[in-house]
Each structure stands twice: as C-alpha cells, then as structure tokens.
Amino acid sequence: MTALADTRPGGATAGSGGGRARPARPLRRVLGRHPLGLLLSAPYLVFVLVVFAYPLVFAGYMSFRDYFFAAPGVDVDRPFVGLENYRTLVADPAVRRSFVNVGIFLVINVPLTVVGSLVLAALLNRVVRLRTFLRVSYYLPYIAASVAVVAVWLFLFSGGGIVNRVLGPLAPDPTWLINSAWAMPSIALFVTWKQMGFYILLYLAALQNVPEELYESAATDGAGRFQQFLNVTVPGVRPATVLVLLLSTVTGANLFTEPYLLTGGGGPNGSSASPVLIMYQEGIEQGKPGYAAAIGIVLVLATLVIALLQNRFAGERDR
Amino acid sequence: MSRTATVLRGLVLGLGALVFLFPFYYMVIGSLQLAPDQSVAGAFPHPGNLTGANYAAIDSRISLFRGLVNSGIFTGGVVACTVVFAVLVGYALAVLQWRGRGATFALALLVQVVPFQLLIIPLYVLIARNYGLADNYLGMILPFAINSTAVIIFRQYFLQVPKELFEAARIDGAGEVGLLTRVALPLVRPALVTVVLLTFIGPWNEFLWPFLITKRADMQPLAVSLANYITNVAATAANPFGAAMAGAVVLAAPLVVLFVVFQRYFISTDLGSGVKG
C-alpha cells in the first residue's frame, strides 16, 4: 500500500516546493521526486538498448568473425578470425574504390551545399513577397522520395534526354550516368539538389540570430552588400555551418539509394559504388555479414575523423 | 538597397526556384506522355498528347494501391511510435525530477550521432534472421520506432510551459497523467505537428531498410516496388520512363500535398532547435 502511494507523484507530499526537507520515503530517495519519469522513459530506453546499443556491439563482434547466415536457433560455429576481415578490405580494390568515390562525392557536394544553401538563405531572408512560394519550392526536393526523383533524373540525364538536347555537342559521351568520369559527380549533384532545401531552412533559422545592428554598423563603416555578407553573415552563422558540414558528410557516408538506382548498382567498373552499396553486396547478396560489418566500422571511423577535422577547422576562429 | 541589387536578387532566387521545381513539373508531364518526347518542345506538350496510360501500365506491373497501403502502414507505425514514446520521454525530461534524467537526456543526444550505416548489417542479421521478422510490418518499423530528435523537440517545448501551470494543476488534484494529457499536450500542439511532419518524411521515403527486409511483393512499400520496377522491369516496358514517372508521381504526391498544406508548421526555427539538440 505504501509502495503504491509512493509511485503516485503529485500526491499530498509532492506539490509545494517548501524549503524544509520532508522525510523522504525509501523509493523516492532512490528514484528521485517523480519516479514516474523513469516509467515514462522506460519504453524509449528499452528501444535504445535493443535497436542501437546491442546492434552496435554486435557489429563489432561480427567484424572479427567468419559470420554466416543460419536458420534461427541453430547453433553454428562462427570462428573468430581476428583482423582477417579488416586485412581483406584493405586489400580489396572495390572497397578502396568505394572510399575514393565518397571522397569525390564530398569534395563536390560539401562546398556546393554550404555555399549554395547559405547564399540562397541569405537572399531569401530579405525577401518579403513570394517568400512562402520560394521556401516551399526549395524544400520540395528534400521532402520528395529519393526513388521518385531518381526516376525523373534518369529521364532528364539519359542519352537523348532534355539536358543533352540543350547542351548539344557539350554533352559527355557516353552520357552522364553511364560515364565512368561523370557518374560520381552526377550523383553528387543530384544529392546536393535533393538536400539543399533542408540546409536552406537551417540557415534561415541561424540568420534570425544575427543581430541587425551588426549590418547597420558595417554599413556605416562603408561595407558594401558583399562585404557585409562576408564579414557579418558568414561569421554569424558559423555554428549552423559546422552543423551543415557534419550532416552533409554523414549523408555522403550513408550514400546507397542513388548509386544503386541512378547508376545501376555502382556504375561502370564500380566508378560510383559507395561503401554502403559494397556492404549490401558483400553482406547480404554474397552472405558475408562479418566482412560487411568490418567495412561499416571502417566507414564510421573514417566519417568520425573527417567530422572532427571539419569541426576543428570550422570552429577554430571562434576562439 | 539599390535597384540593380533587387533585380539581381530576384533573378538568383527565381533561377533557383526553377532549378528546384522543373524536375517536378517534368515528372508530371513525362508521366502523362504516351510516347516519350525528350526534345525541348516536349516540355510543353499540347493537350492532345496527354494520357493516363502510363498510370495503368505501372499499376499492371506493381500494385500502386498495395504499395501505398504498405507505405502507409510503415509510416503510420513509425509516426505513432515516435510521437507516443517521444511525448512521454520529453515530458519526463522537462517536467519531472527523477534519477537518471540527466543520463537519459545525454543518451538521447548520443543516439542521434550513431550512423545508420553501421547498424544495417547487424540489424538485418538480428531482425530478419534471428527474430524472423522479414516481410513483416513490425520488422520494418522497429529500427525507426524511436526517434531521439523528436524526444529533444518535445523536451524543448515542454520546458517552455510555465512551471506554475503544473503546480496549479497539481494543487487542484490532477494526477501526473492528467497533467500530461490535459495541460501539457494541448499547449505544445505546434510541436506535435512539427514532429509528425518531420517523422513522416523518413519512413515514407526510406528505401534501403524495407528493401533489405521485404522480399514478398505484397509487403513492399511503394518506394521499394517502384525501385524494383526501375532496376528490373523498366527495360522491357513500352514506355519505361513514362511508367516509372507515373509511379514517381504517385509516390511523391502525398508528401508534397501534405507539406504544401501544412507548410506554415514546418518552421525553420523548430527544425533548427530540433537538429541542434
């Protein structure tokens, strides 16, 4: 009976915030003033354990084993192979190529994303008429399904497609998505276009925090529009830029749908294969999940290093 | 501001809008053309050349209705789980005092940075192989059922509700559950709409995960069956681009309509605070 009363917060003892300490009952002393909080959070915490923590540990475990699929409940020996999976992936030209591809992707996508979304957001921020229309236009690609917009890009950039008709002799041969030099840049352009609306919204939010007085004082000092943008806007939104860098890098590391669909499973000679695509092919199609898990771990470590470097580089001038 | 600057700004913004919108316009046009006209003139077709035949063609290869239903169940399940669990945790984190509150909040921040690509292989092994949840809605929903961004957005909103409101309701004898449902929730309705819209995008557009764990055509969300059509069937179809784009219109339209209608709730500041954590 007392235990029941204890778990019901908001009762007679909980309400007033008086200064005098009440004699705390045991359960409350252990769990805090509102033990209900733990109960409300329990489903979430269980999910985090089951869907994140356990698979995370499991990925590491698998990467050190010759793991293979077996029927559920069947006890099979999956031998410990140490760093064998890691040695194989370092020697695998397809894996190395996929990491180079992500590098190409990032070199094109990240600067375009940062500059493009910041410039469009800064211009949009000063617009009064048609503001809603423009904002909706910009985030339409972001909310539309990748698979759906891939269909129209295939149509736009096919051999006899409208893009090549407009470009005429300037069009690459063979066309964009089946050309080993252009496949990866085409994917980078597609993803830049697809995601930019989201980053424009982030920058629009950040621009609200740049004080108007800074622009006024810059203008008094004789700074033109462009100088104001460089000296007030760009430093003012630096925290957002760090976030955009991080998110676009993570997007690049997660790349799968676009190379799979746009370039028919990785393009000519794997020229647009991404590490996640290789993970899918090795882990699920070839039945080597241990190897795929090792690729995943290397990919995440590489992403982490890039993110830390970016953070250091972009955040430096704050101090 | 000078006149040239205004004109220049309008020009850049207008050109931007054209680049962002044209593929959508072209998607609709392409889905309605019986024979693909890829010339520049084809972007402005005359009404006589428009037909619904591509929609019939794609529907005969993949069931659009079944795909939409599966997408709906998958998305609905994710949105429902996210909202219910995130409201509970967000409320507990913002309003209640309990041991482990700080650790739970730290965990919610931490989980946001765990990249999904590290988890797909172990999750596939666990969910599809060990738990036998392949070709199963639960298996589809499970990895997305928690959403830490939503937890953080709700916490942020609940923190903004004045403490006195809760104290007053407690003195009036309201239980903690009543406080949550009758006092707190109605006050954070904008957060509710924002979270629903934000979580809707993910599962509706998600391709990789349902692609991995659904092999049966009648269980596949529309994004998966359309992708399979593009990679496998399209080459043999009479007007492959037309049919693929008809499917694309059906897949994209629900979200586009939803966002145009509710766009004022999709406010940049909410998004910013949610992602920043």
From TrEMBL, chain A:
What residue spans carry the region label Disordered?
1-23
- State the coiled-coil residue ranges: none
Q: Where in the cell is it found?
A: Cell membrane
User: Which InterPro entries does the protein's record reference?
Assistant: ABC_transporter_permease, MetI-like, MetI-like_sf
**Membrane spanning residue stretches:** 36-57, 102-124, 136-156, 176-193, 237-256, 290-309
Q: Where is the ABC transmembrane type-1 domain?
A: 99-310
Keywords for this protein: Cell membrane, Membrane, Sugar transport, Transmembrane, Transmembrane helix, Transport
In the bilayer, the protein is annotated as: Multi-pass membrane protein
Matching PANTHER family:
ABC TRANSPORTER PERMEASE PROTEIN, DIACETYLCHITOBIOSE UPTAKE SYSTEM PERMEASE PROTEIN NGCF
Q: What is this protein called?
A: Multiple sugar transport system permease protein
UniProtKB/TrEMBL annotation, chain B:
CDD domains to which the protein is assigned, alphabetical: TM_PBP2 (cd06261)
Q: Which family does it belong to?
A: Belongs to the binding-protein-dependent transport system permease family.
Is Chloroplast found in the keyword set?
no
Q: Which Pfam families match?
A: BPD_transp_1
The membrane topology noted for this protein in its Swiss-Prot or TrEMBL record is: Multi-pass membrane protein
Q: What is its main location?
A: membrane
Protein's UniProt name: Multiple sugar transport system permease protein
